[in-house]
């Protein structure tokens, strides 16, 4: 069935976010770590969630956001949205006006200052770490 892979990704992303919200997780910016942190619900651990702008090699570049997380599920993830902690950070960026959900392919796209940053950062190389705190200030 064509497109079933994309619909599976979209479904997983929505389910991950729903789990994070229902479990009461909160994404908090950490100046100390330079990334978002999310407290674990089962241990005393705090997971670090990183955000990276990934550029396409097409003539008209499109950028997607890749999220990484230090939780067990996030470390082994091979998708743009690593886990429920990453899903929570993605929605936080959306509320801040820095990202938007693209339901067509299940990805998050940078917007506003984050899109400008992605364009500039991707000129010399295809991926670059994003300093979200600098964009918010």
What structural keywords apply?
5 helices; globular; alpha+beta; five-stranded antiparallel β-sheet; 7 strands; two-stranded antiparallel sheet; 137 residues
Task: Summarize the model shown.
The protein has about 140 residues and is α+β, with helices and mostly antiparallel strands. About 35% of the residues lie in helices and about 25% in strands.
Task: Compute the number of strand runs.
Answer: 7
Strand content range: 25-35%
Integer-rounded radius of gyration: 15 Å
Query: Looking at the structure, what is the overall shape?
Result: globular
- Average pLDDT confidence is 75
First-to-last CA distance: 46 Å
The largest sheet is: 5 strands, antiparallel
What does this structure look like?
This protein is α+β, with helices and mostly antiparallel strands and 137 residues long. The chain is 36% helix and 27% strand. The chain is built from five helices and seven strands; from the N terminus they run αββββααββαβα. It has helices at 4-22, 72-75, 84-95, 112-121, 132-136; strands at 27-30, 35-39, 46-55, 63-69, 99-102, 107-110, 127-129. The strands form two sheets. Strands 1, 2, 3, 4 and 7 form a five-stranded antiparallel sheet that branches. A two-stranded antiparallel ribbon has the order 5-6. α1 packs across α3. The longest helix is centred in the N-terminal third of the chain and has 19 residues, at 4-22. The chain is globular and about 40 Å long. The N and C termini lie far apart (46 Å).
């Amino acid at each position: 069935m064509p497109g079933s892979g994309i619909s599976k990704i979209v479904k997983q992303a929505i389910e991950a976010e729903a789990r994070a919200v229902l479990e009461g997780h909160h994404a908090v910016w950490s100046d100390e770590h330079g990334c978002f942190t999310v407290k674990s619900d089962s241990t005393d651990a705090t997971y670090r969630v990183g955000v990276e702008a990934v550029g396409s090699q097409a003539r008209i570049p499109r950028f997607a956001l890749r999220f990484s997380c230090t939780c067990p599920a996030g470390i082994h993830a091979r998708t743009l949205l690593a886990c429920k902690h990453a899903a929570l950070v993605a929605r936080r960026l959306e509320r801040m006006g820095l990202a938007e959900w693209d339901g067509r392919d299940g990805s998050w796209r940078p917007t506003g200052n984050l899109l400008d940053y992605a364009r500039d950062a991707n000129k010399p190389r295809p991926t670059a770490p994003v300093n979200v705190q600098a964009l918010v200030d």
